Amino acid sequence: MNNKLANCLFFLRISIALVLIMWTIDKFVNPAHGVGVYEKFYFIGGLAEQIIVGIGIAELILIALFLIGRFKNITYLVVLVIHAVSTVTPFAVYLDPFKGAGLLFFAAWPMLAACYMLYVFRHEDTKFNL
Length: 130
Prior knowledge:
Layout lengths: L2 H27 L1 H12 L6 H19 L4 H17 L2 H5 L12 H13 L10
Helix pairs in contact: 1-2, 1-3, 1-6, 2-3, 3-4, 4-6
């Protein structure tokens, strides 16, 4: 396999995992923020902070499997779907990008492309897989 492609896919996997890990840590450090995110962007209200922590635990397991390249057909697809949903749900923010932190949401689109690319080339992503 092309070593350049293997390196690129590995760095995509690491960088995507880094973003996901930061979002997950936020669920443990500030679960109230997670409650607010689910209410505002996913229209799921009334979640207890303990549920957010439980979601965070599930995400940690997913990210660990993703990071080590295990069960790629499932983990890479789940990461892609989760990120696709989180990219599309704040659609109103894209309509008024200069309000608040709206511009930051546009960074989700290249990451979505990276998640898609990694999923498409998952069988070529072999560097440092366990």
